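Protein modeling request. Please complete all fields; requests missing the sequence field cannot be processed.
Requester role: graduate student
Desired output: 3D structure, token encoding
Chains: 1
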Amino acid sequence: MTETTTVSIPAEDKLDFKRILPILVIVLVDLMGLSIIIPLLPLYAARFGAEPILVGVLQAAYPLMQFLGAPILGRLSDRFGRRPILVISQFGTLIGFILLGFANTLFLLFVSRIIDGLSGANISTAQAAIADSTNEKTRTQGLGLVGAAFGVGFVLGPVLAFIVLAATGQNYQAVAWTAALFSLISILLTIFWFKETINNTADPESSRKRRPFSFTALRSALSHPSIGFFLIVMFFYQVAFGGYEQLFSLFTLTRLGMDARDTSGLFMLAGIFIIIVQGGLMGRWSKQKGDRWLALMGIGTLAIGLIGTALTPAVPVPWYEKARVLETLAGQGEFRVSLQSINIELPDETVRGWLGIVWLLVASFPAALGGGTLHPALNSLISKASDKNEVGGMLGLSSAAYSAANAIAPLFYGSLFQWLGGPVPFLAGGVILLILFVFAPRVIKK
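Delivered output (446 residues):
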């Protein structure tokens, strides 16, 4: 007769899912509101006559403002708590979406993105709340679940964008109002469901004395033998990946003749893949192979994905009709613009087929894999190397590096797009990541 033994897992090795569930739901709703407009914004700008470089400037406005605001709000969340700072940042997002719904000029598009960016600490504050609610053994899994909530949001957001665009005849304003509705829901969830995760009562004097942000804190973080390099990797990774995210709609429009509804479908497929990776595989890979392996794998696969995207054949999709795409860009009703004001060059419709879209789909999988694993792996490494009282601030600096890269990437990529052609910026991003892949194993220690 054989006896079966049950191996009990210590409580500290288990992720307290009930504790982090409100954070995940809030992130999910936030990302649904954000991702619903991602396929839309470059085309929104093109409607008002923006060329690729000006589209890049518009895309840079949000992360540039976030670069200024996120570290301050991150430090303030260390001092005053995650909940009030999260509510403040969500109200800024709501105002930004409302302005986007009213936008009938390029100027209003810029104003809406600037307001949203200045208050855009939603995600870094949520990541800090996850760090508060986990330990070193469960933190990567917790941050991976935040990434999975990202993925779910990026699936449902484009799905909603597709539905709203189809139901309203490609009405961009309707998409913006839908995003505003989800932002309002996120605010209500934070006020009535989210419980504060930080406790400064043990050392209130230290909490009061900590400054919201200073360049001394930034220099101190960069001088840390581990955190400094992680912040540098975060920056250059997002320089490469940021252009991919922010100009992807413009690339699919000019290369394959795909409108906002078509590109929403691609974002949806990428989001499904990210859910599978971050929700089902991230925790397992982290425990079996470690954050170092995840970071290196993310850099390598993202490089492959970006280079593959750059090599996409210029074959418009089979259903492409140039006149129809121009009509969707021009808009309708009081928001309709003249076709002559659109400065984006669309592909010729005489040669159409499946080669371009199939190629791009194949290239999107390694890009989604790399983008889905690298960001949470780096933030996990940063949080583990940080002092407990500085986790929010360090993740705020991580968010600042991320946002600074997002501000530089569209300017850099938009210039290359306009002057050298659509594939060049994606190829440049892949090369940047290949260089990172050569040096990272020597610096990120086992």
